[in-house]
Amino acid sequence: MRRSPRASSYAVGAVWEQRALVFLRKQNLAFVQRNYRCKGGEIDLIMRTTDGTFVFVEVRARAHTQFGGAAASIGSIKQQRLIFAAEHYLLHFSVCAPCRFDVVAFDGNLLSWYRNAFTA
After folding, report:
1. What CA–CA distance (Å, rounded) separates 84 from 78?
2. Any idea where the domains of the chain sit in the sequence?
3. Which of 4, 92, 93, 117 could form an S-S bond across to 103 if both were Cys, CB 3.0 to 4.6 Å?
4. CB atoms closer than 10 angstroms to residue 2
């Protein structure tokens, strides 16, 4: 039985998200939720800092940096979708807390963590 390309990309994405999750937990961030989806957006990881700040994390991975690398692949449209999904999450769960948007980027096996990568 063949897997669809979409199913394979989800499986690959899940591996990178797990690596990011392990890293962020080592940085004292608490896990809240994974793959929060709403119509119009998705958030890979939702974490929380020790001071209560919600951290909405986009995980990106690229084998090579020839087209700008993993972090550079998050354009303005993707940022808008992340912001929309975060607003949806905050409203849906009646969360009133500080929040920020982080990016965990993998270029090959090199991990880069960008805190406050962009603002709403």
Report:
1. 10
2. 5-118
3. 117
4. 6
